[in-house]
């Protein structure tokens, strides 16, 4: 009898997917940090738009998240020997 050699395999290893999910969560956290600062009256300028959290911290967190996801894609799985 012929064995079924068409075993479905995932593209990445289990660890790669865990790192990818962590990267996506970090990206989402960065966008959450970037949100807010809405003003009820459009005729009044709100200085909160230029806060440290929205200008420096949130984009840095998003870039770190992108770096983590790229790392998870490029990392070799242990199953690939």
UniProtKB/TrEMBL annotation:
InterPro entries per the UniProt record, alphabetical: DUF3098 (IPR021448)
Source organism, top-level taxon: Bacteria
Protein name (Swiss-Prot/TrEMBL): DUF3098 domain-containing protein
This protein's UniProt keywords: Membrane, Transmembrane, Transmembrane helix
Transmembrane feature ranges: 20-37, 57-74
Highest classification ranks of the organism: Bacteria, Pseudomonadati, Bacteroidota, Flavobacteriia, Flavobacteriales
A matching Pfam family: DUF3098
